[in-house]
Write a structure and sequence with these properties.
The complex is a heterodimer of chains A (about 100) and B (about 230).
Chain A (H helix, E strand, L loop, with lengths): L2 H21 L3 H26 L3 H29 L15
Chain B lengths: L1 H23 L3 H21 L3 H26 L10 H22 L20 H9 L3 H22 L7 H10 L11 H4 L2 E3 L6 E3 L1 H7 L11
Antiparallel strand pairs in B: 1-2
Helix pairs in contact in B: 1-2, 2-3
Classes of the chains: A mainly alpha (about 100), B mainly alpha (about 230).
Chain lengths: ~100, ~230
């Protein structure tokens, strides 16, 4: 398969994730959609790594996975903290930081 | 070649439908399961791109560890009744995503990059194996590697701090705790009970809740709602 196919798939996945972040209101699902966007970027990185013939893109993809795992950990910790405080799990309702 | 194409299309359809499922499904638990399908399909795509180690890490780290974390949090928080996002974003979000997809496809395919229409560089034996990746990580990319480990440590500590219990134990747990730990022990000798905000006071009444004093002493809000 040509590299272009992979890039198109990665672009579609990224856009689905971006749309999901805008549409959904549950912070858990928003985190999942962030994962989708990062995975789309990962696919593009690995595809370009294959195109170029070097492994640097794969290294970058692995670092992206590490960052995604860290982000998920902190995000889920925030969700649990919100739940503990008996606040609604809804990004439209959570406006405590709004001045 | 035909087999590669078949596997590619199966994996691509799996990845895209999994992604759509994450966004469209109402129940967050089903969204998580859909993301697992998406991740496994993406690992198949990585394998087709000769990135063995990335594919394995994807399955182990994402589809294994991160998914378990998600499932636990979804089971803890629950929250099935997902209301539709009201107003402008409900309409503009998908439109924006569609426009972005079209624009990205135009940018990728219309860029005139010659390499995009090829199958990539000629395959070298050992490309993408753990041996090559490990060698790169420990020589050329040692600093990002160490930085990633520090980042993971910081994230783990941060998650523990964010999700910790703030105002001592719940009343029922407190009674069980008093029942279980009646052994006489000097104060502040480092038990997990003290970490949770209770400590032994007198010999007769071994444990007392210290949550309020700890809460106000540490500058946290003493309201029933608690502070961040």
């Amino acid at each position: 398969m040509n590299i272009g196919w992979y890039l198109v798939v990665s672009a579609i996945i990224f856009c689905i994730g971006a749309g999901g972040v805008l549409v959904r209101r549950n912070p858990l699902v928003i985190l999942l959609c962030l994962e989708l966007m990062l995975n789309g970027a990962n696919l593009a990185l690995v595809a370009f790594s294959r195109l170029w013939g070097g492994e640097d893109g794969q290294i970058f993809a692995l670092i992206v996975m590490v960052v995604a795992a860290a982000e998920v950990t902190v995000g889920l910790g925030l969700v649990v903290a919100i739940y503990r405080l008996r606040m609604p799990i809804d990004v439209d309702e959570l406006s405590e930081l709004q001045g | 070649m035909v087999l590669t194409a078949i596997i590619f299309f199966i994996a691509a359809i799996g990845a895209i439908s999994g992604a759509i499922g994450v966004v469209m499904l109402r129940n967050p638990f089903y969204s998580v399961l859909s993301l697992a399908i998406h991740l496994v399909s993406l690992a198949a795509l990585f394998l087709l791109l000769r990135a063995e180690f990335v594919a394995a890490a994807q399955v182990v780290v994402y589809a294994g560890a991160v998914m378990v974390l998600y499932v636990f949090v979804v089971a803890y928080v629950g929250g099935g009744e997902q209301l539709a996002s009201g107003g402008v974003l409900r309409v503009l979000g998908p439109l924006f995503a569609l426009a972005l997809a079209i624009e990205l496809c135009i940018a990728l395919l219309g860029a005139g990059l010659k390499g995009v229409n090829t199958k990539g560089a000629p395959y070298v034996t050992g490309f993408g194996t753990p041996q090559h990746i490990g060698k790169l990580f420990l020589t050329q990319y040692l600093f990002p590697f160490e930085l990633a480990s520090i980042l993971l440590l910081v994230a783990a500590v941060g998650a523990v701090v964010l999700a910790r219990r703030r105002r001592g134990l719940e009343p029922e747990e407190q009674r069980i705790d008093q029942f279980l730990f009646r052994a006489r022990r000097p104060a502040y000798t480092g038990t997990m009970a003290e970490g949770a905000g209770i400590r032994p006071t007198t010999q007769d009444e071994p444990y007392a809740v210290e949550a309020e004093r700890v809460g106000t002493g540490a500058g946290e809000s003493s309201k029933p709602e608690g502070g961040w």
